[in-house]
Design brief:
Blueprint: H1 11-20, E1 22-25, E2 29-35, E3 42-45, H2 55-71, E4 80-86, H3 95-108
């Protein structure tokens, strides 16, 4: 689990990233990011019920995505708010492929050091 400093929780921040953030896509994830001027990057993974009707499946994907981010925090540039939307194709991937695709998306967004 991400520490409180690295979680994006305020609705004001969500709306600002959704409105003004830059987008990057791949076949499995959509990522929107916006510079926050802080010393930490904050993340949120958003999974709608359209992905899967089962909360167990959605929560597993959310937990795996957040764990990938937590383990890669030292590689990710500080000072960004990041929203991540997994696609329904991401449900079919195992953990290693999820990690590869998510980190590749961070690299495409120039968010890796």
């Amino acid at each position: 689990m991400l520490t409180k400093n690295h979680r994006l929780t305020r609705q004001k921040d969500f709306l600002l990233v959704k409105k003004r953030g830059k987008s990057v896509y791949n076949g499995y994830f959509k990522l929107k990011y916006l510079e926050n001027g802080g010393e930490f990057s904050c993340f949120s993974v958003i999974i709608s019920a359209k992905i899967s009707k089962k909360a167990v499946v959605r929560n597993k994907l959310r937990r795996q995505s957040l764990e990938i981010i937590r383990l890669a925090l030292d590689k990710i540039k500080p000072g960004y708010n990041v929203l991540i939307w997994p696609n329904n194709k991401a449900l079919d991937l195992d953990y290693q492929l999820l990690e590869t695709n998510l980190l590749a998306l961070f690299k495409r967004a120039f968010l890796l050091k």
